[in-house]
Specification:
The structure is a single chain. The protein has 374 residues and is α/β, with parallel strands linked by helices. The chain is 25% helix and 25% strand. It contains 8 helices and 20 strands. β2, α1 and β3 form a beta-alpha-beta unit. 49% of the residues are buried.
Length: 374
């Protein structure tokens, strides 16, 4: 059974990106249906550490975060807390990082430049090997699940429909229309938005498209309750890759394992030791903390070859829009990306230039990291 011509756009995925896109598309008067294989925020979104920061070194990423954070700050149900981000920057990275701060200031982001000694006001740490530190008070974190549900509610109110527990198992294009097959029924629409997170590469493959997104497992370890004099902001040690922040009376912390890619499941406890070793070298006071295994969790990043998102129309695939591959930046960028996707869907020029994130870049230049990833 097929719903012919019932929809203007079909969104695959109801994580924070898909839910936000659905709202903005429906706001534009587009008949929007969302197909989600499980439940809203049931994949990577709900397992995110939910940090939001505008401390990037490229204009596109800075603006995507800046406008998203502004939207979250105005949503009472977002759980946004401006606890700040403190970045600890090694000597070798400091000159380029300072250039990024100059760009952030030009774009209206209130980043402070601190010496390692000045940064101790936020948390005690060993300053060895650091060229400097930066702190932005408007960075922080959100309630990723609650925020996604808020977007779902807004999308539904605007007329979007959500088909949950509905996996897409086949996609084909004919006569200017995409047909998406599920086990229950087929859905047809001239526009499709691939917002399926770590599954985006597989969704593209259903349509015969090569979309370079693959899953990467990430650990979030939680300590037992601590008696800290004040909550810690999100702190990211760029040299070791360790990050940590307060979560209630606990700390949560992690460190990416570049080799942990693919559909691996479960908490990787063997990664705990190297994570703690790197963390305690910078934060020796962590030695007194206990670990709460029950409060720890894991989830998937959706990574691309250059660890940057893929946003916008797919070349050679009429009516296909990508909003995927965020490599840990999905919660940070969701609000602004949704506006970009809605503008592209109706033929408008996006309010942020997302040229650096378009699919075409993979054929135009060698891939390499272009921004920090936590």
């Amino acid at each position: 059974m097929s719903e012919r011509a019932s929809w203007d756009v079909a969104v695959i995925g109801a994580g924070i990106i898909g839910a936000a896109c659905a709202w903005r598309l429906a706001q534009r008067g587009l008949r929007t249906v969302v197909l989600e294989q499980a439940s809203p925020a049931g994949g990577s979104t709900g397992k995110s550490a939910a940090g939001v920061r505008a401390q990037f070194t490229t204009e596109t990423n800075i603006l995507l975060s800046k406008f998203s954070i502004e939207e979250y700050a105005g949503m009472p149900d977002s759980g946004y807390r401006a606890g700040g981000y403190l970045l600890l920057v090694p000597d070798a990275q400091w000159p380029a990082h300072q250039q990024g701060v100059t760009l952030q200031h030009r774009l209206g982001v209130p980043t402070e430049v601190l010496t390692p000694e000045e940064a101790q006001v936020h948390a005690g740490f060993v300053p060895d090997g650091l060229g400097g530190c930066t702190f932005c008070a408007t960075d922080g974190h959100v309630d990723a699940h609650g925020l996604t549900m808020a977007y779902v509610q807004r999308a539904r109110k605007a007329g979007a429909q959500f088909r949950l527990d509905t996996a897409v198992i086949g996609i084909r294009h004919a006569g200017g229309v995409w047909q998406l097959d599920t086990r229950a029924r087929s859905v047809e629409a001239p526009l499709i938005v691939n917002a399926s997170g770590a599954w985006s590469g597989e969704v593209g493959a259903l349509a015969g498209l090569e979309i370079p997104v693959r899953p990467a497992r990430r650990m979030v370890y939680a300590t037992g309750p601590l008696h800290l004099p004040r909550p810690l902001p999100m702190i990211f040690d760029l040299g070791s890759g360790v990050w940590l922040r307060s979560e209630g009376e606990r700390l949560i912390l992690g460190r990416a394992d570049a080799a942990d890619v693919g559909w691996r499941e479960g908490l990787n406890w063997t990664w705990l030791e190297p994570t703690l070793e790197a963390a305690m070298a910078r934060f020796p006071w962590l030695e007194a903390a206990t670990l709460d295994r029950q409060a720890s969790w894991w989830g998937y990043y959706e990574v691309t070859p250059d660890h940057q998102a893929i946003v916008g129309r797919m070349p050679g695939a009429e009516g296909w829009l990508n909003a995927c591959g965020f490599s840990g930046h999905g919660v940070m960028h969701a609000a602004a990306v949704a506006r970009v996707i809605a503008q592209e869907a109706v033929g408008e020029t996006p309010f942020i230039d997302v040229t650096p994130l378009r699919y075409e870049r993979f054929a135009e230049r060698p891939q390499g990291l272009t921004d920090i990833q936590v």
